[in-house]
Every structure is written in C-alpha cells, then in structure tokens.
Design brief:
By secondary structure, the chain is of the alpha/beta class. It is about 35% helix and about 15% strand. A hairpin with a 4-residue loop joins strand 3 and strand 4.
Length: about 200
C-alpha cells in the first residue's frame, strides 16, 4: 500500500454541477486540466463541498461553469461524469479535457502550495486514475505540445495563452507542476495492475 493511500479517500459523488456541455465519447479525452477555485465569495480557504454546492445550485445562467472534480485538503468531489463536457476553459479544452478544481488561489506562493500537500495528493490520485483509464501521459505539456494536441496534463493558464481565450492564469506561476507530475506518476505506479 502506498505511503499516502489515505488521500485516495474520501471521493464523494456530487452534488452534480448545474451546467454542462452535453455528452461526449471518452475517446475524445486528451488532457487533464488543472485549475484553482480562486475562492469566489469565501473569506478564507474555500472548501471543496462549498464550491461543489455553488456549482450545483447557485451559478447563474449568464455565468455557466462546471468541472469534473473539486478537491481540498479533506475530500475530493466528483461533480460531472467523465463522459460529459464541462464549461471550464472556454475552448477545445472543454471537449477534450477532464478538469480538476483545486481549492486554492493562483496567487499562492510555493510555500502556500506546500502547506496544502493533502489537496495535491488527493488530486494526484484522481489524475493517476484518469491517466490509466484514458492513456494520458502523466506529465505537463509544453505550450507547443498542447497546441499540437498531444495528450497530457495542462493548466488553465496554458489554455489562455495557447487558445487565446479568457484571462485566467490559474493555478498560478508558483504551482508546483513538476512535483504534481511526480505525484501522479508515483500513484500511477501504485495503480499498475490494480483494479479500479
């Protein structure tokens, strides 16, 4: 058993996001897209449950958003099935991506990200599962690789730069992408040969 198997659970189902882009074939999935929740109206650290509830009930029709997974230090919550398109990145990344919202902020320092290792570990477990299920390499793509359509992991900031849509910079310049990719690879090794 892995040293941090405790971060595999709990994974809750729902509440389901109110808005989505309709069904898709899972053969269309190419990317795992990393985001931060940015807190919304929450005074401090938003919880995954609060964000999931907001996405399920309070998002107005003129601000349609959704995602597949929201994660904090305590829990991961599945808010859309993998075969449903999310409204997350305003681009091709919606149709071809699985979107993870980390309870956090793009402005966080490297130290602040390290204070939330549990969030990263929980997200890494789900990312590893998706990598295995959809044959996605457990590494972050360069902008050129994303532009070409290579499979892998990307950030919302990359979608903004490459697809030239929106102004999002999450999960931020100090998001520990290399460390997260290592976490995903280690969990993928743990999952090798295991049943889902």
């Amino acid at each position: 058993m892995s040293y941090d198997a405790k971060h595999r659970r709990p994974v809750l189902q729902g509440p389901r996001c109110k808005w989505d882009g309709g069904p898709r074939s899972t053969a269309d999935i190419s990317w795992i897209v990393w985001h931060t929740t940015e807190g919304g109206g929450y005074p401090r650290q938003p919880s995954a449950l609060a964000v999931a509830r907001w996405g399920a009930a309070w998002v107005p029709a003129d601000h349609k958003v959704s995602w597949h997974l929201v994660v904090d230090d305590s829990v991961a919550i599945v808010t859309l099935p993998d075969d449903v398109i999310s409204y997350t990145a305003f681009s091709r990344a919606n149709r071809h991506g699985l979107h993870i919202e980390l309870a956090g902020h793009a402005r966080w320092s490297t130290l602040e990200w390290y204070r939330h290792q549990a969030t990263l570990k929980r997200a890494a477990w789900r990312a590893a599962l998706w990598c295995r299920r959809y044959d996605i390499p457990p590494r972050f793509l360069t902008d050129d690789e994303y532009r070409r359509g290579d499979k892998g992991m990307i950030t919302h900031a990359q979608v903004t730069r490459v697809d030239r849509v929106g102004s999002h910079t999450d999960p931020g310049p100090r998001f520990p992408a290399r460390r997260v990719a290592r976490m995903v690879r280690r969990r993928l090794e743990t999952l090798a040969g295991a049943r889902e």
